[in-house]
Amino acid sequence: MSWHARIDAALAARRAEDSLRQRVVLDRPDARTLRAADGQWCNFAGNDYLGLSRHPQLISAWQEGAARYGVGSAASAHVTGYTPAQANLESALAEWLGYPRALLFISGFAANQATIAALLGPGDRLLADKLAHASLLEAGMHSPATLRRFHHNSPDSLARLLAAPTDGETLVVTEGLFSMDGDAAPLPLLSALSRQHRSWLLVDDAHGVGVLGEAGRGSCAQQGVRPDLLIVTFGKAFGLSGAAVLCSEAVAEYLLQFARHLIYSTAMPPAQAVALQAALRCVQQGDALRARLQHNIDWFRQQAAARGLPLTASASAIQPLIVGDNARTLRLAGHLRRRGYWVGAIRPPTVPPGTARLRITLSAAHREADINGLLEALSDAGE
Questions:
Q1: Is 287 an active-site residue?
Q2: β-strand pairing of 229-233 with 200-204
Q3: 229: three-class secondary structure by DSSP
Q4: Torsion-angle region of residue 130: left (phi > 0), alpha (psi -120 to 50) or beta?
Q5: 68, 73, 78, 79: CA torsion to nearest 10
Q6: 341-342 and 229-233 as β-strands: parallel, antiparallel, unpaired?
Q7: Element (H or E) spanning 247, and its range?
Q8: Helix 249-258 and helix 108-119, axial crossing angle in degrees, nearest 10
């Protein structure tokens, strides 16, 4: 089959399954609004949980960083891309989260891929939660290690896999708060099993850091667990982008030598690191924002229950409404869009077959009137 035929067939299959992904050009005038030439919508699709993406302190910090350092890094941090701004951010993150070292990455995807690829070799194994993020699972598939997936949030399933003999090392991988279902991993049990079997535990806490735990330290702090490797990302509650790996001194030095994403990618711009330090201060002092977010979560769930809407048991800012059928999910998202609400229609392969959903996400920037209007539109769609 030729390249053109292969591409055409793949796209045709996606269209037939109502799973074709499409991008839309949108403006974001504030933390709760999306705008285009043909309309304006209240945004219930993003991950800006604390509403920091438009915070004036972050904007000012980035402008000041750009004035001092310029707008790019120009090279890998191993060459010319490492500045006091990046070093200070790494130190602040390590101290805040209780690790000897932090290493900055350009994205959470890159951090997960680099860490797993550098650590795992032939004879090793990666044991990952079945619903772990694509970046984690894909890293395992591309590594020379053996990938095994345990049932979602099931310590018993993990224990059975850990009990199987192996000659190599074992890395257990999970998300702290799962991005599509909004449920939390049982981290104390997973950590205890990992230690019992002399395995390492890696937790990707992209959706927990900034939101959960004392001062927003995340899922692990909330559950009293310190994994061997902690991945935090800045594209959600921090309101920006990028990521960091929290680890020991030895692992940090090892990654600096062998993590190809660090060695061969242009580093995070120092101006962005300046803005991220401002975001870190906002997160650390953000109890009022977290309280407002929690109020919005509670209000959404109370009002949804009163309307008989079938939500999952998620207690987080991620509130999935499972629809099942791809076409119906798209119709519901279209109905909401016509009513002025932007909600993501998430379909396979992002989620398992038969679990297409509206992924409703809440923010501290939302108002009760926003939530009430969304729920009224959903109720009308049900009728």
A1: no
A2: parallel
A3: strand
A4: alpha
A5: -90
A6: unpaired
A7: strand 243-247
A8: 90
pLDDT tens-digit profile of 137-171? Answer: 998 888 999 999 999 999 999 999 999 999 999 99
Active-site residue (options: 204, 205, 228, 370): 204
- What does the block give as tokens for 313? 């048991």
Alpha-carbon gap, residue 252 to 286, rounded angstroms: 29
- Tokens describing residue 289: 């924002």
The bridge status of strand 33-36 relative to strand 39-43 is antiparallel
48 labelled catalytic: no
pLDDT at 310: 87
β-pair partners for 27:
35
Q: Retrieve residue 35's tokens.
A: 């705008």
Q: 289 and 51 in contact (C-beta within 8 Å)? A: yes
Question: Cα–Cα distance between 310 and 294 in angstroms, integer?
Answer: 20
Q: Is 149 helix (H, G, I), strand (E, B) or coil?
A: strand
Known catalytic residue: 179?
A: yes
Provide the pLDDT for residue 383.
54
Structure tokens at 10: 């793949």
Q: Could you say which of 19, 43, 47, 107 is catalytic?
A: 47
266-293 pLDDT per residue, tens? 999 999 999 999 999 999 999 999 999 9
Residue 236 annotated to the active site: yes
So what's the pLDDT on residue 4? 87
Q: What percent of the chain has pLDDT over 70?
A: 99
Q: Which of the residues 135, 143, 179, 314 is marked catalytic? A: 179
Q: Which member of 55, 133, 261, 366 is catalytic?
A: 133
Active site residue 316: no
Catalytic residue (choose from 207, 265, 326, 363): 207
Is 47 tagged catalytic?
Answer: yes
pLDDT at 110: 96
To the nearest whole number, what is the mean pLDDT of the chain?
A: 95
Neighbour count for residue 331 (Cβ, 10 Å): 15
Catalogue the E-assigned strands of the chain.
27-30, 33-36, 39-43, 101-105, 125-129, 146-150, 170-175, 200-204, 229-233, 243-247, 318-324, 341-342, 344-346, 356-361
Q: In angstroms, rounded to a whole number, what is the distance separating the alpha carbons of residues 292 and 300?
A: 12
Q: Please name the helix (run of DSSP H) or strand (run of DSSP E) that holds residue 231, with its range, or none.
A: strand 229-233
Q: What is the pLDDT of residues 34-66, one digit of tens each?
A: 999 888 999 999 999 999 999 999 999 999 999
CA-wise closest residue to 121 among 140, 138, 149: 140
Select from 182, 170, 172 the least CA-distant residue to 130: 172
